[in-house]
Amino acid sequence: MPRNVIFYATETGKRPVDEFLDSFESKEAQKILWVLKLIGELDRIPSQYFKKLTGTDEIWECRIKTKSKAIRIFGFFVNGDTLVLTHGYAKKSRRTDARQIKLAEKYRSEYLTRKRRAT
How far apart are CA 75 and CA 85, in angstroms? Predict the structure, then answer.
């Protein structure tokens, strides 16, 4: 089942994932985009690349490992098959930063509120 993968945009039009991707060297950006393509195309995505974060408000984590970094991009599903990617960060510790999860939940809430207003 293919998924649509889109980037979250704030009310002002800022796209945090675009800004995050722009911060990487070409090879790292290619690997990130490769993983995002897998997520969009594969029926079953290996958990090394994508998993739901327990204890969150439906937040999923794209997981990319490069030679020097552990990269995480957060997102959530709408309409069952559309993954909205909110933002990303490069992990510095083994644990996922709780502030980053809270930010993803905030973006999800804002997105869903705007979507309800539009209908």
Answer: 4
